Amino acid sequence: HEADAYRTDLMTITRHVLNEQSRNPEARGDLTILLSHIVLGCKFVASAVNKAGLAKLIGLAGETNVQASAPAYQPSSPRLTSVIFLPCEIEMVKHSLCDQGEEQKKLDVLSNEVFVKALVSSGRTCVLVSEEDEEATFVEPALRGKYCVCFDPLDGSSNIDCGVSIGTIFGIYMIKDKENVTLEDVLQPGKNMVAAGYCMYGSSCTLVLSTGNGVNGFTLDPSLGEFILTHPDIKIPKKGKIYSVNEGNAKNWDEPTAKFVEKCKFPKDGSSPKSLRYIGSMVADVHRTLLYGGVFLYPADKKSPNGKLRVLYEVFPMSFLMEQAGGQSFTGKQRALDLVPTKIHERSPIFLGSYEDVEEIKGLYAEQA
Ligand code: AHG
Ligand code: MN
Ligand code: MN
Ligand code: MN
Asked: Do the Cβ atoms of 201 and 159 come closer than 8 Å?
């Protein structure tokens, strides 16, 4: 009856987070509520990504099969019939997009708007940092909560038009004093994050999350509109056979990176060479690294001395997850989570993945130091 139990005793992401949060006495459900709004944003993007190619225009979730009454908002562009939104969520999505108007919005701009509005309306955030917004968003006092969310609403945007996996990345900090929030509250080291995760929009929609007690993966069941626990307690293999880097930048790499990649291709100890896998969406490359092991690197190079990936909403969340899964993450100079950012869109080189693989890279940088 194990299978039956599984089918009827659904471990949804909300139930899972509630279970985890019930362990700390002072929890008041705020993080659970915040995460449920992030989940809504992910479901919207999943729906839009799945149909973006077909619908051409990103319209609104159709109301044919979830709303009896006439919708408040008359979508002007072709409708996406959605099967993953709960009725109450449709209204939120409609209201958040009712200024959608005529013009077609690029998916990353649209995704950003949905996440900003879902996070603000959650009443649990007081400052937001998004890759798509030059300045941080300070939530008006009436709706202010105690969390800061740093997010990349659509990661891997260069892969949208060819249908290759893309994603959303987020990291959550607790704010010290929500009455007078300043940018200092956001510029905290990654080790202060209370939760982090990503959602990958691929052959299936998978949300990977940690609230500080390990890493769990949830897969969206479109017929239920719920993320169901499918990858409990993910642990990354201690060592891997895959390296993931954009070899096109090899001309500009520094010595330790060049040496490491050389060792992957021409091992001296008689072991077999590693495989190269590079998708070009950080979420997809990190997800494969987390499940299969190996190492993902976006090193500094002569052109970009701080590498390309952004500290607050790419490097920190992925490093947090890697450490929680038994791996590690290094900037070339220090543990990634110890970095203290000085600007909200600051970049950093990153080497993350299997513990032993990253140790090897740390050794090569130590030799050079
Ligand atoms: P974004 O689409 O959010 O700007 O992020 C793209 C990033 C990341 O997803 C990926 O790892 C990296 O860009 C790929 O960069 P290259 O194309 O330079 O390899
Ligand atoms: Mn990105
Ligand atoms: Mn992005
Ligand atoms: Mn971008």
From this structure: no
> What is the residue whose two structure tokens read 């513990």?
355
Q: Is the CB of 328 under 6 A from ligand 1?
A: no
Number of CB atoms found within 10 A of residue 251's CB:
10
Report CA torsion sign: 286, 358, 193, 131: negative
Closest CA to 350 of 368, 332, 324: 332
Distance between Cα 214 and ligand 2 center (Å): 23
Cα-Cα-Cα-Cα dihedral sign, residues 119, 120, 123, 128: positive
Closest C-alpha to ligand 1, atom 7: 156
Nearest ligand 1 atom, CA 159: 2
Could you count the other beta carbons within 10 Å of the beta carbon of residue 128? 21
CA distances from 203 to 113, 206, 227, 358 (A): 24, 9, 15, 29
State the first-to-last Cα distance of the chain, in angstroms, to the nearest integer.
Answer: 59
CA dihedral 38, 100, 56, 287 (to 10 degrees): -20
Give the separation between CA 322 and CA 171, rounded to whole angstroms: 13
Structure tokens at 152: 């990349």
> Does an H or E element contain 290, and which?
helix 282-292
Residue 244 pLDDT:
98
Which atom from ligand 1 is nearest to the alpha carbon of 158? Answer: 2
The CA distance from 32 to 299, in Å, is 35
Token pair of 318, please?
Answer: 């992925």
Report helix angle 30-55 to 13-21, nearest 10. Answer: 160
156 lines ligand 1 (CB under 6 A): yes
Give average pLDDT by consecutive 10-residue segment, the chain, 369 residues.
Answer: 67 92 84 96 89 47 32 39 57 46 64 95 97 96 96 91 91 89 92 98 95 97 94 98 97 96 96 97 98 98 93 98 98 98 98 98 95
Q: pTM, whole model, 2 decimals?
A: 0.88
Q: For ligand 1, say whether the CB of 280 is within 6 Å of any of its atoms.
A: yes
